[in-house]
Specification:
169 residues, two-stranded antiparallel sheet, 25% helix
């Protein structure tokens, strides 16, 4: 299993969650830290994947509490802090992650509603099969709060695939 941590911002207070998250998701695989400080570097980091499919945990920062409508799920309060979204891509995983960074896009999936209002600060990419997506969500549920019931889990039986953690002090 390859675990590649992609950080889209210079190291700062939000990046301190990365080792904790990596430990929760893949404790036996320390991963690869790939800093990415601009569009050119983001594309370079995406090319460093061993496979263009797999699982990921995207990390978003919400700077201040806000109410966001999430498609048919409804309207929810998103507290200031960090949000961890477990997702998967069967192909074009790098394009999926880049989509999460875009602010102007058609709102199609639950994560789109959050990603246009929060800043994506990084991702952990795991080259495992899609069947492991729920397993990773269960591991995160053990160390983080479920942010919105049903978020990102309309195609499985999980309580949700979006988790919340307050900002580190």
């Amino acid at each position: 299993m390859l675990v590649a941590t992609i950080i889209l911002e210079p190291a700062g207070r939000c990046s301190s969650y990365s080792p904790h998250l990596r430990e929760s998701v893949a404790p036996d695989h320390p991963g690869c830290f790939i800093p990415a400080f601009g569009a050119k570097c983001k594309a370079m980091a995406a090319r460093n994947y061993k496979a263009n499919s797999g699982l990921y945990v995207a990390v978003f920062h919400v700077a201040k509490t806000q109410h966001i409508r999430v498609g048919k799920l409804g309207r929810f309060s998103f507290r200031k802090g960090l949000y961890f979204y477990v997702g998967s891509g069967r192909k074009n995983l790098d394009a999926r992650l880049k989509r999460h960074v875009l602010k102007k896009k058609l709102l199609r999936w639950h994560i789109d509603y959050l990603s246009v209002r929060a800043k994506m600060i990084g991702a952990i990419v795991i080259t495992e099969s899609r069947e492991s997506e729920c397993k990773i969500a269960r591991k995160l549920a053990g160390s983080c709060d479920l942010a919105v019931a049903g978020f990102g889990s309309s195609d499985c039986c999980c309580p949700g695939h979006l988790f919340y953690g307050p900002e580190p002090i």
